[in-house]
Amino acid sequence: MLEYVRPEDIEKRSFEIIAEEIREMGVTLDPKQAPVVMRVIHTTADFDYIENLKFSDNAVDSALKALKEGAYIVTDTNMALSGINKAALTKLGCEAFCYMADPDVAQAAKYNGTTRACASAEKAAKLKGKPLIIVSGNAPTFLIRARELIDAGEMSPALVIAMPVGFVNVVQSKEFIIDSGVEYIAARGRKGGSNAAAAVVNALMYMLTR
Fold first, then answer.
1. pLDDT tens for residues 28-58?
2. pTM for the full model?
3. Residue 34 catalytic?
4. Which of 42, 65, 130, 188 is catalytic?
């Protein structure tokens, strides 16, 4: 039998179902992390994120502080950028960018013999004056280059959202970030994606705007 739900109540009902199923699994989520985990499940319908999604000790606090200060958010795909809620972004005074299609990024990648994702990370490192949040849902090389820039003291992000999906260097790139010493939210293993990465950003913003 179909469940009748008013259009304006669909999201609320979805989260009720997610919460019910998590309780049935005998799982208790960390209160600070729960909104992020549940929104990623809402976006993907994948309860594996209960185990896969890992947080550094101060990830949520660092992210919320950065967002309150009008953070720069840099993604590795336009899909992730498009999935970030623009109303919440504006309300917080934050700015979000994806540099992958920028002509100067293409030129730098060609000149250096690297990927556009590497060049995008290098461009992100030049942003100054506000906290930086790095968001990866697709390109392991984006994370790998970010780690190199962190180690070199050229990038100091308030948070790295490490969620590329796939096979080649995906698992390794996430572990590079987990071991980097920066605050992170990472989807360990092969799962992730631009939609899931954007969901993490939205969940954090909604903590401050809803």
1. 999 999 999 999 999 999 999 999 999 999 9
2. 0.96
3. no
4. 42
